[in-house]
User: Fold these one by one.
Assistant:
Number 1:
Amino acid sequence: MSDLPLVILGAGGFGREAFDVVLAHNAASGLPQRPNVFEMLGFLDDGEPDPDRLARQGARHLGPTSSLADYRGCFYLIGVADPTVRRRLAGEADAGGLQAVTVIHPSAAIGTQLTVAPGTVICSHVSVSTNVLLGPHTHLNPNCVIGHDCVLTDYVTVYPGATISGNVTLRSQVQVGTGAAIVQGLTIGERTFVGAGAAVVDDLHADVVAVGVPARPLLKSQKRETGSQG
C-alpha cells in the first residue's frame, strides 16, 4: 500500500486542524475502515501563513493556489471555513486534475448508513448518527452533533459544539455557528448563517443571518451594524 500525496488548500486555523485530522487518520491506518495513508506535501495558500506554526506541525507552505496544476494527480482537502471560497477552490482543484478526499478523525462517533461525499472533513469528537448524508466538502468542526436522518447537501460548515437534531436538512453553503442548536425536522435554506448560540425552532429561508433564542432573521440594517455574514 503506497501513501497518497495530499495537499491542503488554506493554511489558516481550520486548514491546520484538518492536517491534525489527517495525522490522526494516518495513525489509525491499520484499522480496516481507514486503509489509506496520506503523504502530506504541504499547504497551498494565497496569503502569508505563519511559517513557525506550519513548521511545528511538520508542514510547509508550497505557494499560492494558482500553482494547483503543479499537483495534478494528487489528492486534496480544503481547509477554508467560508463555503463560497470553498466552492471556488474545489472547482479550481477539480479542473486542475486533483481529487478530493474525505478524512474522519478516529475519535468521531459514526453511526450506520452514513453516506459521505469527497472533500468532507470530520474533526475530533464529532457525533454523527444513523442514516446521515454529508454532501461534498462538508466541514464538521470538533464536538458538533449531527442527528439521525439529516441531510447536509454541499459546502456546509458546522462549527464547534453545534447540535443538529434529527431529520434536519441543511441546504448548500449553510453555516451553523458555535454552540447553536437546530430542533428536529427543520430545513435551513441555501447560504443561511445561523449565529453562535442560536436556537432554531422554525425553518429558515435562504440568504439570511439568524440569531437569538429563538433564532430570528436579522434585518439588512442589523447585518451591516453587526458585521454578520449574509
Number 2:
Amino acid sequence: MKIRVVLADDHSVVRDGIKAAIEWTDTDIRVVGEASNGREVLSMAQKSPADVYVLDISMPVLNGIETTGQLKQLVPDSKALILSMHDSLAFVEKALQAGADGYIVKQCPTEEILHAIREVHAGNAYLSPRAARYVIQGFLHKTEHSRKGKSFIQLTRKEKQILQLLAEGKTSKQAAHNLGISVNTVHVHANNIMQKLNIHNRADLVRFALREGVIQI
C-alpha cells in the first residue's frame, strides 16, 4: 500500500516540485491532497486522514508548528514532517515540541524528502543533517534564545493563533472572522498576550513573533 501524503505550502511552486518528484521517481508514495495553509490541512485530516503531512513552517493563517500540534490531537497516528527555509535551533526545537516527527530544510535534495517521508511513516524520527547538528548543540549548551522562548510557551493555543494573525497584520475583526470568535474575545486574548509577554504595542508584538519564529519576513 502506498504512503498517502498531503503537501502543505503556501507557494504552489514548492508543492508542484515535490509532487512532480514523487510522481516521476517514486512508486511507494502518493500525494492525496494539497493545502496552502494549516486550516486547510486540518479540514482535510478531519475528512480523510493521510499517513504523512509535509508542512511548510511559515504558512499563513496557521503556521506549520501550530498545525502540527493540532493535527496530533486530531489524528494522533498521523506523521508530521516540517519543511523549512531555516535550520536554526529555535525553529527545530519548536517543531519537535509541537510533536513533529521530522524536520527538513527546503534546500535539501529531492531524494532526502522522499527518504524523510518513508522514515517518519515507519515510525522513526528524521532530522536533516544541518538541523540535527543544532539539536545536539542544544543539549550541550543552553542557549539564550531558548531561555527567551519560555515566555512563548506560557501562551495558550488560542493565544498563539491570535498572536500570529495580529503579527501578520490582521485587524481584530479579521482575526475574529478567521477563528470564528467575537471581536471582543480577540481583544481579551490580545490583552492576555500583552500581559504574559510584557509587550505593550503592535510593533513589539511583531518583533517578538519574528524572533520566536511565529511569522517570517
